[in-house]
Write a structure and sequence with these properties.
The chain is an all-alpha fold. The protein is 86% helix and 0% strand. The protein contains six helices and no strands.
């Protein structure tokens, strides 16, 4: 019976994500499908009950937005070409914008903050496990992409 509840929550999350992506461009549909798979994977790997999933995923969505924003800024700062003939003040300003470690530190701070929030819902062991599960999903996604490109 509990297994059916997990299946029901997972399928509901997938349908919700797909329905919300129906009016969006093609790339957004792909992203929504991947995000749905990620939600199902996290639900399964962390053994979330329906009640836990209902409380966990709004927090996860906030976490995801914050991490996405940091990573976007990090990528933006590393891909911005540096202008020539800039004075010393601008050089130090540029180096601060391109300081990759500061972005990594911000990301780590966000992860620490959200680990506490996740722990309130699923306990500290599963909250810490979440980051490993998330990394495993990324690796699975990368392997699938490589497989499709062959």
């Amino acid at each position: 019976m509990l297994r059916f509840k997990h299946l029901f929550v997972t399928i509901g999350a997938i349908i919700l994500c797909i329905a919300s992506a129906s009016a969006q461009p093609r790339d957004s549909k792909r992203f929504a499908a991947i995000e749905s798979e990620k939600i199902a994977y996290i639900t399964k790997e962390l053994s979330l009950t329906p009640a836990e999933a209902q409380r966990f995923f709004p927090i996860y969505n906030q976490y995801s937005k914050e991490i996405w924003a940091i990573r976007s800024k990090k990528k933006e700062s590393t891909t911005t070409p540096s202008p020539r003939g800039v004075n010393a003040f601008n050089k130090s300003d540029r180096s601060e914008k391109r300081d990759i470690l500061s972005y990594d530190a911000k990301e780590l701070d966000v992860k620490k903050e959200y680990r506490k929030k996740f722990a309130e819902v699923v306990g500290s062991a599963r909250a810490s496990q979440f980051f490993e599960v998330e990394q495993n999903f990324r690796e699975l996604l990368y392997k699938e992409l490589q497989r499709r490109n062959r």
